[in-house]
Amino acid sequence: MTTGSGNRWLHSALTVFRKEFVDALRDRKSLVVVLLAAVLMGPAMMFAMSVLIGRMEASNQAREITVAGIEYAPTLANYLSRQSYTVKAAPADFKQGIAAGSVAEAVLVIPADFSTTMADGRNPKVELYFSAAHQRSASAVQRARQLIGGFNREQSTIKLAMRGIAPAALSSVELNVRDLADRAARGAQLLAFMPFMLMMAVLYGCLAAALDTTAGERERGSLEPLLMTPVRRSALIAGKWAAVACVGMLITLLAVGSYLPARLLINSETLRAMFNFGPAEALAFLYFMLPLSAAIGAVLMAIAVRCRTFKEAQANSAIAVFFFSLVPMVEVFNQGAAAPWFVVVPGLGQISLMNRLMRHESIAAMEWLTPLITSFVLIAVAIWLISRALHRTAVGR
Amino acid sequence: MIVVQGIAKRFISGRARSQTTVEAVSDVSFVADDGRILGLLGPNGAGKTTTLRMIAAQFPPDRGTITVDHLDVGEQPYHALACMGVLSDARGLYPRLTALENIIYYGELHGMTRPDAVRRARELADILELSDLLDRRTIGFSQGERMKTALARALVHDPGNIILDEPTNGLDVLATRSLRNTLRRLRDDLGKCIVFSTHIMQEVERLCDDVVIVSHGKTVANGSVAEISARAGTSDFEDAFVALAFSASERANEQGHA
After folding, report:
1. Residues A265, A46: contact at Cβ < 8 Å?
2. Which of A45, A121, B26, B101 shows its CA 20 to 30 Å from the CA of A86?
3. Are B136 and B217 part of one and the same domain?
4. Last residue of a domain, one of B115, B142, B158
5. Separation in Å, CA A183 to CA A186, A272, A359
6. Domain range for residue A76?
7. Interchain pair A230, B81: CB under 8 A
8. How much is the average pLDDT of A196-209?
9. ipTM of the complex in this document
């Protein structure tokens, strides 16, 4: 190739790129949908979660227990107040209230014969009402169990002591529970949806542009006139792909960037401390996601270029969209450490590494490099498929 | 100048047993000179569009050669395309771009600088009475407005050879007349070589210096309107066309229906 024709190639590719990029940015409707659905959704979800967690924290900290019939059990009332718990009386219709989620998360019910049964040396039966449909009830139930357990231990210790037996006889093994997950790892568990939301943003960001420059061009009847200009097909493909990749990368940039101020939205102290996402993490995310968005753009184009209509292309690209949006699920379902092969799978590798980054886990140099390589391989294969499809095109038939 | 010599093209679709072969073009030849308008006349499905697509290097003929300004289209497709302005059967525009942007995009694809492309687009807009529309996005353009924009797009690089596939399709009377005037000016003032396909008799009679009648993928007659009428032994061009383009059985069928 001489310098002249090289310049000519570049001029053509740049012309195509400029036109396609402007065209894609003028597709306001698609862009607004992507911005709302994918870019703003992440921070909005994060805000909602922080409100939820904040509420959970508040009820955990409030040492409160709702009891019906506390007046029948003065010993228990005495124990609870020594544990610095406030006893709240349950309303009469608490059963409906629990089901509807309007009363407390769990209600302890004391029978009227509590004291007399105990005095007879038998075990009185208390009941704990809750609704498993409400997630927050779990902690209230646990608290009630712990309190009753504590009360039981105290009572039996007293009885044993009165019979001259050491309280240690009650428990032969002592269990100490220690959680080794650090705060960042716990936060990452909660925030696993974040890389997933990023993936959606990238996918839908590329989709409209990728389909429009290929199947859309054919459907409008503008592909044939385009192929009747003396533009090398390689320049045409390069320009189109560059434009789609740029749109995808722009959306990625916005999506990643939108999580930076999201930190300010979090009103839960714990979550804010756990939310390990600053400028350094944002840069690492971009390093993983920018090449991937260029690759996803190329893959979508390779699928759509074979289709005659936009609709057909949408149906066919659903496979790729499905793959890339479900791939993060592997990471979610796979409890425990990430398998070594995760890194090699486009999409999964990026998601897995981003999650590990949020958990403060170390990442080897090769693991940093692998997703970049898989993205480039994907781009190369897709571009090859696109050019094969375009070279074979007998547009009219 | 465009020279087409004995081209043939067959399309094979499907695989194995369900395979079907369509012989779209079997033997078409003609010479289109500079400064003249040549009409490719033929019934629907005669192979006109396929012939024009092969001239525009969309796929190579199975047999025969095509040269444009002495450049072999098969050997130097990109150089040949640079000497052609093609208004193809598909004439889609980009709805989110303005008419001007649509036109200069093609100018730049032909290697023009942006200022040159803009200047040329405005000139063409004057000729085609398109100036008022230039800065509007093409979404919502009427058929005639689309056609004019597509024509300006095809002519933006000032090609010596102009190829038009059924250019008056969907145009009203006034738009058709204005297109005819434009083509005459391009021929007379600028000496362009113009080839267009049509199945409309009047268009050929009013406009063409040379006529090539294509039927069932073959050139069946060649010459001026008067020459072709004389050869068919009739003074009416439509009768001559029917006599040359359709087989005896097809004509019998038509009379049966009438």
Report:
1. yes
2. A121
3. no
4. B158
5. 5, 10, 9
6. 61-178
7. yes
8. 88
9. 0.91
